[in-house]
Amino acid sequence: MNSITAKLLTIALSLGVFSAVAAEKIDASKLPPASDKKGVTYAKDIKPLMETSCFKCHSSKSEKVKGKLKLDTLEDALKGGENGKDIIAGDSAGSPLVAMVAHLGDEDEFMPPPKNKAGIKQLTKDEVGLIRAWIDQGAK
Ligand code: HEC
Fold first, then answer.
1. Does residue 7 form part of some domain?
2. pLDDT recorded at residue 25
3. What burial letters (b/e) apply to 107-123, b meaning 16+ CB within 10 Å?
4. What is the CATH number of the domain that holds 96?
């Protein structure tokens, strides 16, 4: 192939890579609705859920903390990971973490990762709804 074709190909490839990495806007109407439970807190409602589904890869006891995100304290969860904040208090539909656990948007970011070796299952709609209620109520 000539050098112009090669250059065009390189540009096309790099654009493709870009669009795969850029955060995808999700259709918030596809998210499971927030639970109507009142007074949802990290300590009471969210930590037990994350312990089952997330701590294997996102806690200070994980062999390797994935995405530099720890979820085993409220403070660390709010701090976020290598891509910045994953929880926006008061805005569950705009919180990257919610799209990821609802398996919407970029497939590479679905959490827990589908087919993970530990066999950890996807969250149920009710669990996603509980996380949404927690974030909408201020992520306390
Ligand atoms: C089997 C391991 C595993 C489990 C279980 C898991 N994750 Fe992850 N998580 C990862 C990996 C790996 C990454 C890094 C993603 C990448 O680099 O592609 C990540 C990244 C993330 C990020 C992005 C962090 C950032 O700021 O870059 C969020 C948010 C997240 N996970 C949330 C969760 C939540 C919530 C759960 C539980 C419901 C969970 N994950 C369960 C492996 C896991």
1. no
2. 77
3. eebbbbbeeeeeebebb
4. 1.10.760
Q: How many domains does the chain have?
A: 1
Distance 81 CA to ligand 1 centre (A): 9
In a domain, 3, yes or no: no
Give nearest CA residue, ligand 1 atom 14: 67
* Per-residue confidence (pLDDT) for residue 33, from 0 to 100: 98
Q: Which two tokens stand for residue 74?
A: 């409220």
Predicted pLDDT of residue 65: 98
- How many angstroms is it from 73 CA to the middle of ligand 1? 15
CA of 97, closest atom in ligand 1: 29
| 81 strand-pairing partners | 84
Q: Indicate yes or no: pTM above 0.85.
A: yes
**pLDDT beneath 50, residues of the chain:** 18-22
Range of the domain at 131: 26-136
Pocket test of ligand 1: the residue of 66, 68, 79, 103 to mutate, having most ligand atoms within 8 Å of its CB, is 66
Tokens of 87: 């929880």
